[in-house]
User: Fold these one by one.
Assistant:
Number 1:
Amino acid sequence: MLLSAPASLSGLAAVPAAAETPAAHFLPIAAILDDPRPEQRVRISASLVQDLGDNEFLVEDATGRIIVEGGPAWYHRFGLPADELLIIDGEVEVEDGDPPEIDIHQVTREDGAVLRIRPATGPSPWSGRPAAAGTPLSEPPVWE
Protein backbone atom coordinates (compact mmCIF):
# COMPACT_ATOMS: atom_id res chain seq x y z
CA MET A 1 0.00 0.00 0.00
CA LEU A 2 1.42 3.39 -0.97
CA LEU A 3 0.94 6.20 1.53
CA SER A 4 0.69 9.93 1.03
CA ALA A 5 2.12 12.65 3.23
CA PRO A 6 -0.22 14.12 5.85
CA ALA A 7 -1.83 17.51 5.53
CA SER A 8 -0.92 18.20 9.17
CA LEU A 9 0.56 16.44 12.17
CA SER A 10 -2.72 16.27 14.10
CA GLY A 11 -3.97 12.96 15.47
CA LEU A 12 -0.51 11.65 16.28
CA ALA A 13 -0.12 8.08 17.52
CA ALA A 14 2.36 5.21 17.72
CA VAL A 15 2.32 2.56 15.01
CA PRO A 16 0.94 -0.79 16.20
CA ALA A 17 3.56 -3.57 16.08
CA ALA A 18 2.00 -6.00 13.64
CA ALA A 19 -0.50 -4.08 11.58
CA GLU A 20 -0.45 -1.67 8.69
CA THR A 21 -1.35 1.77 9.94
CA PRO A 22 -3.36 4.48 8.23
CA ALA A 23 -1.22 7.35 6.91
CA ALA A 24 -2.69 9.80 9.43
CA HIS A 25 -1.02 8.10 12.43
CA PHE A 26 2.39 9.60 13.19
CA LEU A 27 4.42 9.75 16.37
CA PRO A 28 6.09 13.10 17.06
CA ILE A 29 9.87 12.86 17.33
CA ALA A 30 9.71 14.53 20.76
CA ALA A 31 7.61 11.62 22.06
CA ILE A 32 10.31 9.15 20.95
CA LEU A 33 13.07 11.24 22.53
CA ASP A 34 11.12 11.75 25.78
CA ASP A 35 10.10 8.10 26.22
CA PRO A 36 12.24 5.82 24.05
CA ARG A 37 10.98 2.24 23.96
CA PRO A 38 13.45 -0.19 22.39
CA GLU A 39 12.01 -2.05 19.39
CA GLN A 40 8.82 0.07 19.41
CA ARG A 41 7.41 0.27 15.88
CA VAL A 42 6.98 3.92 14.88
CA ARG A 43 5.92 6.02 11.93
CA ILE A 44 7.15 9.59 11.70
CA SER A 45 6.64 12.35 9.17
CA ALA A 46 9.89 14.30 8.87
CA SER A 47 12.25 16.17 6.57
CA LEU A 48 15.93 15.49 5.96
CA VAL A 49 18.24 17.89 7.79
CA GLN A 50 21.58 16.25 7.04
CA ASP A 51 23.05 13.11 5.47
CA LEU A 52 25.49 11.91 8.15
CA GLY A 53 27.03 9.25 5.90
CA ASP A 54 26.99 5.45 6.13
CA ASN A 55 23.17 5.31 5.77
CA GLU A 56 22.56 7.58 8.78
CA PHE A 57 20.40 10.68 8.40
CA LEU A 58 19.34 13.48 10.74
CA VAL A 59 15.63 14.23 10.24
CA GLU A 60 13.23 16.63 11.93
CA ASP A 61 9.59 17.36 12.47
CA ALA A 62 8.01 20.30 14.31
CA THR A 63 8.85 18.70 17.68
CA GLY A 64 12.50 17.68 17.35
CA ARG A 65 15.33 15.93 15.52
CA ILE A 66 16.39 12.29 15.48
CA ILE A 67 18.87 10.09 13.62
CA VAL A 68 17.40 7.42 11.37
CA GLU A 69 19.57 4.55 10.17
CA GLY A 70 19.12 2.30 7.15
CA GLY A 71 21.45 -0.62 7.72
CA PRO A 72 25.19 -1.02 7.47
CA ALA A 73 27.08 0.67 4.65
CA TRP A 74 28.99 -2.58 4.04
CA TYR A 75 25.67 -4.15 3.01
CA HIS A 76 24.22 -1.33 0.87
CA ARG A 77 24.33 2.45 0.48
CA PHE A 78 21.51 4.87 -0.34
CA GLY A 79 20.43 8.49 0.06
CA LEU A 80 17.26 10.33 1.02
CA PRO A 81 15.82 13.34 -0.82
CA ALA A 82 16.15 16.81 0.71
CA ASP A 83 13.39 19.45 0.78
CA GLU A 84 10.64 16.85 0.93
CA LEU A 85 8.37 15.53 3.66
CA LEU A 86 9.10 11.82 4.18
CA ILE A 87 7.12 9.14 5.96
CA ILE A 88 9.56 6.91 7.81
CA ASP A 89 8.46 3.55 9.21
CA GLY A 90 10.85 1.78 11.54
CA GLU A 91 11.63 0.78 15.08
CA VAL A 92 13.27 2.58 17.97
CA GLU A 93 16.82 1.58 18.82
CA VAL A 94 18.38 2.50 22.17
CA GLU A 95 21.97 1.52 22.87
CA ASP A 96 24.21 2.10 25.90
CA GLY A 97 22.70 5.38 27.06
CA ASP A 98 23.00 7.03 23.62
CA PRO A 99 20.06 9.08 22.35
CA PRO A 100 17.43 6.92 20.65
CA GLU A 101 17.57 6.36 16.89
CA ILE A 102 15.15 4.82 14.43
CA ASP A 103 16.09 1.76 12.36
CA ILE A 104 14.39 2.38 9.01
CA HIS A 105 12.11 -0.30 7.58
CA GLN A 106 10.81 1.84 4.72
CA VAL A 107 10.56 5.45 3.56
CA THR A 108 7.68 6.91 1.54
CA ARG A 109 8.15 10.06 -0.53
CA GLU A 110 5.54 12.75 -1.15
CA ASP A 111 4.82 11.26 -4.60
CA GLY A 112 4.07 7.85 -3.03
CA ALA A 113 7.34 6.17 -4.08
CA VAL A 114 8.50 3.67 -1.44
CA LEU A 115 12.06 2.70 -0.52
CA ARG A 116 12.02 -0.64 1.29
CA ILE A 117 15.13 -1.08 3.44
CA ARG A 118 14.18 -4.22 5.33
CA PRO A 119 11.11 -6.39 5.96
CA ALA A 120 8.55 -5.13 8.48
CA THR A 121 8.96 -8.34 10.47
CA GLY A 122 11.77 -10.81 10.96
CA PRO A 123 15.50 -10.31 10.75
CA SER A 124 17.15 -7.76 8.51
CA PRO A 125 18.74 -9.07 5.30
CA TRP A 126 22.21 -8.33 6.75
CA SER A 127 21.52 -10.02 10.09
CA GLY A 128 24.07 -12.71 10.89
CA ARG A 129 26.37 -11.72 8.04
CA PRO A 130 29.93 -10.69 8.73
CA ALA A 131 30.90 -7.11 7.94
CA ALA A 132 32.60 -6.88 4.57
CA ALA A 133 35.26 -4.43 3.50
CA GLY A 134 35.13 -2.54 0.22
CA THR A 135 32.19 -2.88 -2.15
CA PRO A 136 28.73 -3.28 -0.56
CA LEU A 137 27.29 -6.81 -0.71
CA SER A 138 23.94 -5.68 -2.07
CA GLU A 139 22.70 -3.25 -4.69
CA PRO A 140 21.20 -0.10 -3.18
CA PRO A 141 17.48 -0.30 -2.49
CA VAL A 142 15.36 1.33 -5.20
CA TRP A 143 12.32 3.60 -5.03
CA GLU A 144 9.24 1.62 -6.14
Number 2:
Amino acid sequence: MVAQRDVPAGSTALAPMLGHGEHDALRSGRDVRWSPGTYGWCVKSSSTDQVTDIEGCSTRVVDAERVSVVRSRMPADDDLADTADVFGLLSDPGRLRVLLALLEGELCVCDLAVVSGLSESATSHALRLLRAHRVVSVRRAGRMAYYRLDDAHVRMLLDLAVAHTEHTQAIHPERDDNV
Protein backbone atom coordinates (compact mmCIF):
# COMPACT_ATOMS: atom_id res chain seq x y z
CA MET A 1 0.00 0.00 0.00
CA VAL A 2 1.28 3.47 -0.82
CA ALA A 3 2.11 5.56 2.22
CA GLN A 4 0.09 8.76 2.31
CA ARG A 5 -0.06 11.71 4.60
CA ASP A 6 -2.86 14.24 4.89
CA VAL A 7 -1.58 17.77 5.31
CA PRO A 8 -4.01 20.43 6.56
CA ALA A 9 -4.35 23.66 4.64
CA GLY A 10 -1.70 26.22 5.52
CA SER A 11 0.72 23.60 6.91
CA THR A 12 4.40 23.96 6.13
CA ALA A 13 5.44 20.56 7.55
CA LEU A 14 6.75 19.41 4.17
CA ALA A 15 8.01 22.81 3.05
CA PRO A 16 11.68 21.79 2.70
CA MET A 17 10.66 19.04 0.23
CA LEU A 18 8.42 21.17 -1.97
CA GLY A 19 8.79 23.09 -5.18
CA HIS A 20 7.12 26.46 -5.82
CA GLY A 21 3.85 24.97 -7.12
CA GLU A 22 3.49 22.74 -4.10
CA HIS A 23 4.09 25.67 -1.72
CA ASP A 24 1.30 27.47 -3.57
CA ALA A 25 -1.00 24.44 -3.11
CA LEU A 26 -0.41 24.49 0.64
CA ARG A 27 -0.81 28.27 0.89
CA SER A 28 -3.99 28.20 -1.21
CA GLY A 29 -6.07 26.98 1.71
CA ARG A 30 -6.79 23.60 0.07
CA ASP A 31 -6.21 20.37 1.95
CA VAL A 32 -3.70 18.19 0.16
CA ARG A 33 -2.60 14.57 0.38
CA TRP A 34 1.05 13.65 -0.08
CA SER A 35 2.11 10.22 -1.22
CA PRO A 36 5.24 8.75 -2.80
CA GLY A 37 5.30 9.15 -6.56
CA THR A 38 7.51 7.67 -9.25
CA TYR A 39 10.11 10.40 -8.96
CA GLY A 40 9.41 11.72 -5.48
CA TRP A 41 6.34 12.75 -3.53
CA CYS A 42 3.01 13.58 -5.17
CA VAL A 43 0.37 16.03 -4.07
CA LYS A 44 -3.34 15.34 -4.48
CA SER A 45 -5.59 18.23 -3.82
CA SER A 46 -8.91 17.41 -2.21
CA SER A 47 -10.55 20.10 -4.33
CA THR A 48 -9.41 18.68 -7.71
CA ASP A 49 -9.05 15.26 -9.28
CA GLN A 50 -5.42 15.75 -10.19
CA VAL A 51 -2.24 14.20 -8.86
CA THR A 52 0.91 16.24 -9.37
CA ASP A 53 4.41 14.86 -9.04
CA ILE A 54 6.82 17.15 -7.18
CA GLU A 55 9.00 17.22 -10.29
CA GLY A 56 6.08 18.96 -12.02
CA CYS A 57 4.51 16.10 -14.00
CA SER A 58 0.71 15.87 -13.74
CA THR A 59 -1.59 12.91 -14.11
CA ARG A 60 -5.32 13.49 -14.31
CA VAL A 61 -7.58 11.17 -12.30
CA VAL A 62 -11.04 10.80 -13.79
CA ASP A 63 -12.61 8.34 -11.33
CA ALA A 64 -10.78 8.77 -8.02
CA GLU A 65 -12.95 6.25 -6.17
CA ARG A 66 -12.34 3.53 -8.72
CA VAL A 67 -8.61 4.31 -8.83
CA SER A 68 -8.52 3.99 -5.05
CA VAL A 69 -10.24 0.59 -5.15
CA VAL A 70 -7.93 -0.69 -7.88
CA ARG A 71 -4.82 0.53 -6.06
CA SER A 72 -5.98 -1.10 -2.81
CA ARG A 73 -6.39 -4.44 -4.61
CA MET A 74 -3.05 -4.22 -6.42
CA PRO A 75 -0.69 -7.01 -5.31
CA ALA A 76 2.42 -6.14 -3.34
CA ASP A 77 5.50 -5.13 -5.35
CA ASP A 78 7.26 -8.42 -4.56
CA ASP A 79 4.26 -10.40 -5.83
CA LEU A 80 4.13 -8.31 -9.01
CA ALA A 81 7.85 -8.89 -9.59
CA ASP A 82 7.39 -12.66 -9.12
CA THR A 83 4.47 -12.69 -11.55
CA ALA A 84 6.47 -10.69 -14.09
CA ASP A 85 9.30 -13.23 -13.70
CA VAL A 86 6.90 -16.08 -14.54
CA PHE A 87 5.70 -14.26 -17.66
CA GLY A 88 9.34 -13.61 -18.54
CA LEU A 89 10.00 -17.34 -18.32
CA LEU A 90 7.08 -17.94 -20.68
CA SER A 91 8.39 -15.37 -23.15
CA ASP A 92 11.21 -17.61 -24.38
CA PRO A 93 10.01 -19.88 -27.24
CA GLY A 94 12.32 -22.74 -26.18
CA ARG A 95 11.09 -22.74 -22.59
CA LEU A 96 7.52 -22.42 -23.83
CA ARG A 97 7.97 -25.52 -26.04
CA VAL A 98 9.28 -27.39 -22.99
CA LEU A 99 6.25 -26.33 -20.96
CA LEU A 100 3.80 -27.16 -23.71
CA ALA A 101 5.37 -30.62 -24.00
CA LEU A 102 4.76 -31.09 -20.28
CA LEU A 103 1.04 -30.50 -20.83
CA GLU A 104 1.03 -34.12 -22.07
CA GLY A 105 2.57 -35.42 -18.82
CA GLU A 106 5.97 -35.84 -17.27
CA LEU A 107 9.04 -36.32 -19.43
CA CYS A 108 12.78 -36.74 -18.83
CA VAL A 109 15.36 -34.17 -19.96
CA CYS A 110 16.37 -36.24 -23.00
CA ASP A 111 12.80 -36.52 -24.29
CA LEU A 112 12.11 -32.85 -23.56
CA ALA A 113 15.22 -31.89 -25.54
CA VAL A 114 14.00 -33.87 -28.57
CA VAL A 115 10.46 -32.49 -28.37
CA SER A 116 11.55 -28.87 -27.85
CA GLY A 117 14.41 -28.87 -30.35
CA LEU A 118 16.85 -27.68 -27.69
CA SER A 119 20.11 -29.32 -26.69
CA GLU A 120 20.08 -31.37 -23.49
CA SER A 121 22.21 -28.67 -21.84
CA ALA A 122 19.81 -25.88 -22.87
CA THR A 123 16.84 -27.99 -21.78
CA SER A 124 18.44 -28.64 -18.38
CA HIS A 125 19.13 -24.92 -17.97
CA ALA A 126 15.54 -24.05 -18.91
CA LEU A 127 14.20 -26.63 -16.45
CA ARG A 128 16.45 -25.26 -13.70
CA LEU A 129 14.97 -21.78 -14.21
CA LEU A 130 11.43 -23.11 -14.39
CA ARG A 131 11.93 -25.19 -11.25
CA ALA A 132 13.38 -22.24 -9.33
CA HIS A 133 10.14 -20.33 -10.02
CA ARG A 134 7.96 -23.35 -9.12
CA VAL A 135 6.63 -23.66 -12.66
CA VAL A 136 7.81 -27.28 -12.97
CA SER A 137 8.67 -29.95 -10.41
CA VAL A 138 10.89 -33.01 -10.62
CA ARG A 139 10.56 -36.67 -9.70
CA ARG A 140 13.73 -38.73 -9.49
CA ALA A 141 13.84 -42.43 -10.36
CA GLY A 142 17.38 -43.66 -9.91
CA ARG A 143 19.60 -41.56 -12.15
CA MET A 144 16.68 -40.28 -14.22
CA ALA A 145 14.81 -37.06 -13.53
CA TYR A 146 11.24 -36.67 -14.76
CA TYR A 147 9.74 -33.19 -14.97
CA ARG A 148 6.09 -32.18 -14.84
CA LEU A 149 4.10 -28.98 -14.53
CA ASP A 150 4.06 -27.95 -10.89
CA ASP A 151 0.32 -27.45 -10.48
CA ALA A 152 -3.02 -26.83 -12.17
CA HIS A 153 -2.42 -23.06 -12.21
CA VAL A 154 0.53 -23.48 -14.57
CA ARG A 155 -1.51 -25.78 -16.82
CA MET A 156 -4.37 -23.26 -16.85
CA LEU A 157 -2.00 -20.38 -17.68
CA LEU A 158 -0.54 -22.31 -20.62
CA ASP A 159 -3.95 -23.46 -21.85
CA LEU A 160 -5.30 -19.89 -21.74
CA ALA A 161 -2.24 -18.46 -23.51
CA VAL A 162 -2.49 -21.02 -26.31
CA ALA A 163 -6.25 -20.53 -26.63
CA HIS A 164 -5.77 -16.76 -26.79
CA THR A 165 -3.22 -16.97 -29.60
CA GLU A 166 -5.35 -19.48 -31.53
CA HIS A 167 -8.36 -17.17 -31.75
CA THR A 168 -6.61 -13.84 -32.24
CA GLN A 169 -4.29 -12.51 -34.88
CA ALA A 170 -1.55 -10.51 -33.22
CA ILE A 171 0.14 -7.62 -34.96
CA HIS A 172 3.88 -7.73 -34.42
CA PRO A 173 5.43 -4.43 -35.55
CA GLU A 174 8.78 -5.59 -34.14
CA ARG A 175 8.97 -8.48 -36.62
CA ASP A 176 10.32 -7.92 -40.12
CA ASP A 177 7.73 -10.21 -41.78
CA ASN A 178 4.96 -7.63 -41.14
CA VAL A 179 6.30 -5.05 -43.54
